[in-house]
Amino acid sequence: MKIDDRTLDRIAELARLDMQEPAVRAAMLKDMQRVFDFVEVLAGVDTKGVEPLIFMNEEQDVLREDKARTEISKEQALANAPVKDGDYFKVPRVVG
After folding, report:
1. Which of 49, 57, 87, 92 would you label with 16, given CA atoms 20 to 30 Å apart?
2. Banded model confidence at residue 59, pLDDT cuts 50, 70, 90
3. Nearest alpha-carbon partner for 10 in 19, 1, 2
4. Higher-pLDDT residue of 76, 59
5. Cα distance between residue 23 and residue 27, in whole Å
């Protein structure tokens, strides 16, 4: 697939990117074209008989033991709060 200026403009619009500068546009166009070319190469690889990779290693769900502990006191947490009300953080109202 060939990436043209129109496609680049649409992607920039969807991603909310500013690509007005010609050097930025040229670099982005080149990089995106390389990605699409690589995907086309991958699409041409014969994968019949290849099992899908689900996990990168044999271990599954390796999690630390869940232990409740106090890392910081309430007073320490509230010490850096810009605005507080007693034992609570005070934040601007979000819902009207």
Report:
1. 92
2. confident
3. 19
4. 76
5. 6
